[in-house]
Amino acid sequence: MANLPSSSGMFSRLLANVFNTTVASRCSASGRWWPQPEYELSKHRSRAPSMGIHRRTRLNVVDNSALGKEADTTGKLPYCIHVYKQGRRAKHMPHAELGDKILVAIRGQMRKAYVVGANTHVHYRKHGVPVTDQNMIVLLDEEGNPLGNRITAPIPTKLMANRGNVQFSKVLALANKFI
């Protein structure tokens, strides 16, 4: 491009912008056909951090139930449909935290489950509560008993405070590792 005459200086700048990879990648990010202005480029993620488990959040089953193993081997993870918890605002589903009961869709079925591990954003973490790198649940049957007979992952000791709940105490009895 240095060999081009000076009268085509504008043309050479246009070609430099067309073949510049940083401008091309910025164009596709904003959905415009022209480059996104520098002051509009975000240096952080585009989605807001999640406060907890909400609708359509993917989860991992950590008990040894047949339904959980089947979902794990097929790669179709269960996801949250509803949170059984009173929210602050009417018609707004609250976020589930450790020890909350949720309704999940797994392998074409709807099952209730307890949250035994949650991956929360760094701004919403609480002191003394360990954070896991995945959202973990234990599946329940229609009577509220756990489907599996063993929990394969360590669960936080903060959940021991929920021993008063009869259904949750059955889940705690299956765990042998606490963090």
From TrEMBL:
InterPro entries found in the cross-reference section: Ribosomal_uL14, Ribosomal_uL14_sf
Keyword Transit peptide: yes
Localization annotation: Mitochondrion
Gene Ontology terms: biological process: translation
Leader peptide range in chain numbering: none
Gene Ontology molecular function, alphabetical: structural constituent of ribosome
Entry keyword set: Mitochondrion, Ribonucleoprotein, Ribosomal protein, Transit peptide
GO cellular component terms attached to this protein's record: mitochondrion; ribonucleoprotein complex; ribosome
Keyword Ribonucleoprotein set for record: yes
SMART domains documented for this protein: Ribosomal_L14
Superkingdom, natural source: Eukaryota
Family: Belongs to the universal ribosomal protein uL14 family.
Entry protein name: Large ribosomal subunit protein uL14m
Annotated organism of origin: Caenorhabditis elegans
